[in-house]
Amino acid sequence: MNAPVRKTDLSAAITLPIEGMSCASCVGRVEKALKAVPGVETVSVNLATERASLTTSGTVDHAKLVEAVEDVGYSVPTKPASSTSFIELLVEGMTCASCVGRVERALRAVPGVQAAVNLATERATVRVLEGTVTSERLAAVIAQAGPQLKLIANFGNGVDNIDIAAAAAKQITVTNTPGVLTEDTADLTMALILAGPRRLTEGAEFMRSGQKWAGWSPTWMLGRRIWGKRLGIVGMGRIGTAVARRAKAFGLSIHYHNRHKVAPQIEDQLEATYWESLDQMLARMDIISVNCPSTPATFHLLSARRLALLQPTAYIVNTARGDIIDEESLVKLVQDGKIAGAGLDVYEHEPAVSPKLVRLAKAGRVVLLPHMSSATIEGRIEMGEKVIINIRTFIDGHRPPDRVLPSML
Fold it and tell me: Exposed end of the chain (fewer CB within 10 Å): N or C?
């Protein structure tokens, strides 16, 4: 029995990640191949970001796009499932217990979704299980939503688990909880920046193990100095800027790559250097901190090719989203000694953690944490308060303060 053909609705521009391009002629070949796919109207390929932006006159077979790219010698990586998230849905029109049952059954029919509906508050609390629900499935749920679905209030800052464009097309408002997690995430990012080079977890594990400690030694547990090193921040938004403030206090020089330069006063305060070319920045940094959002444009932004640009003494820290880094390539580089190590709080296939990464952690080559960068009591309380404010503001007929629009991604 043949698998159903996957269709991609390109009524609006989409972004297609492409790996393997290395020169302007590569760009030309990819553009020519994609333009030949029936239904594709315009194609623009960006070598620096390894992305192709397309518009079409209608529905295009996604497999045809992939095939066109592969026919000219390149590849289109497949985006994995999104991570766990809690979503609060405002559902209007329910009048009885049977209504609640119908809504719950409809939501639970989506693989990887758990849902509980409250008739009195007209709320559906939806848990999107880690590693099970793709954005494609959630887009289908939104597309099938009736007129009663008015608001999706996300309990979290990241909205990679929600198809924002599909929601906007259905006039469904989407909100998140920005700002309240900035300082907590930046704190943990700085902790990972320190933990890898200074071998903090190795030292702590040794003392917990009960092994006999011979006392101070001039050559034992030698790590790398932090002061004076170059920190390259990928994504200079709220969190990236907060990381930069902390790192500057530790004596690191601040460098960053972003879609746009930050305000001059911020650059001056941080003594930060802007790099238009991500490739050039990666090749010159001692430590890389990944702080950009997960979007189609940032999937595998740190690809195998880009990771290979890092110096053998470099460390990479990721507290953003796991799919921004090609995790398998990162593992291989650490295994082969091509980079010094990594500090990870997020993983490409959460909640699954690669056994290879676990082995590297046991060997002291990487530091692994269980997606806890925002896990503070204060942060969770403030997140909940933002969700309530967004819902209450919407119910009162006003625009929620934390509305998420497609143009913001």
Answer: N
Specify whether 245 is catalytic: no
Is residue 406 within 8 Å of residue 164, measured between CB atoms?
yes
Q: What is the pLDDT of residues 311-329, one digit of tens each?
A: 999 999 999 999 999 999 9
- The total of structural domains in the chain comes to 3
Q: Specify if 79 maps to a domain.
A: no
Give me the residues paired with residue 116 across strands: 125
Q: Which of 199, 257, 306, 371 is catalytic?
A: 371
Same-domain pairing of 92 and 168: yes
321, 327, 348, 365: which is the annotated catalytic residue? 321
Query: To 5 degrees, how large is the angle CA 375–CA 135–CA 50?
Result: 95
With a CB cutoff of 8 Å and minimum separation 6, the contacts of 284 are 230, 232, 255, 311
Query: What is the CA angle 136-140-141, rounded to 5?
Result: 120
- E-strand spans in 139-261? 149-155, 173-175, 230-234, 253-257
- When pLDDT is cut at 50, 70 and 90, the band that residue 398 belongs to is very high
pLDDT digits (tens, 9 = 90+) for 334-345: 999 999 999 999
Amino acid letter at 375?
Answer: A
Q: Is 136 a catalytic residue?
A: no
User: What residue numbers bound the domain in which 141 lies?
Assistant: 85-179+378-408
Q: How far is CA 231 from CA 60, 227, 291, in A?
A: 42, 10, 12
| 321 is a catalytic site residue | yes
